[in-house]
Amino acid sequence: MKDLFGTALLDYHYGNYTEDIITSTNISDDDELPLPYLFRDFKSMPKLEKRALKLAKGCVLDVGCGAGSHSLYLQKQGLKVKAIDISKGAIEVAKNRGVLHAEIKNILDETETFDTILLLMNGTGIFQELSQVSKYLKHLKTLLNEGGQILIDSSDIKYMYEDEDGGFWIDTNANYYGELDYFLSYKGEEETAMKWLYLDFNNLEFACESVGLNCELIAEGKHFDYLARLS
Ligand SMILES: C[S@@+](CC[C@H](N)C(=O)[O-])C[C@H]1O[C@@H](n2cnc3c(N)ncnc32)[C@H](O)[C@@H]1O
After folding, report:
1. N or C: which end of the chain has fewer CB within 10 A?
2. Is the pLDDT of residue 164 over 90?
């Protein structure tokens, strides 16, 4: 990984913002990911993220913290927060913005336990593929204190396969429709392609059942997105 995501966050944070990240997937064209969005404050956050932050309690793990926007809000509310990300640049930015406990770490290498685990901005993306969901959920379950919760958001992206007549062109022989090849470029450089998973609520619920987690639908957004609580 070249960490172009981290480079972009560093540029924005240190006043060198000239362009946005460009993303695309195997089923969608180029799209801009505006860097200011990754530095959003509470009032600019989507409804589902606000709801997740209001539900957070106790000792919190912010997984894939990016620039640390959620961690900073929770810290200000007096919660004890640990923020982790595989991006070196993201962790430098999060620390520099004031996140007190931020570490470069893959979630699969985390061993401490928490009362709340947050995975936000399509939190299921980190699981990469449907076949890996149980592995990640099993691990996340081991990181929960008694009475703890995982707050995770995602979307059912079936609508992306809809044609003009309202029919769907999903290839039933292909992999799960939410498994995307995700491409990112920044300032003309291309990041190594990665897998990114959008998981509909029913499949998340099914995977939770298989690993002994309770899965509750907390809220739905306006565009097939949802927030779930696993406990
Ligand atoms: C879509 S960004 C979300 C950033 C932040 N949560 C936000 O809402 O602004 C996903 C983040 O997850 C991080 N990430 C991806 N895989 C990860 C893993 N296995 N463990 C920890 N972080 C990961 C990426 O580096 C990236 O910063």
Report:
1. N
2. no
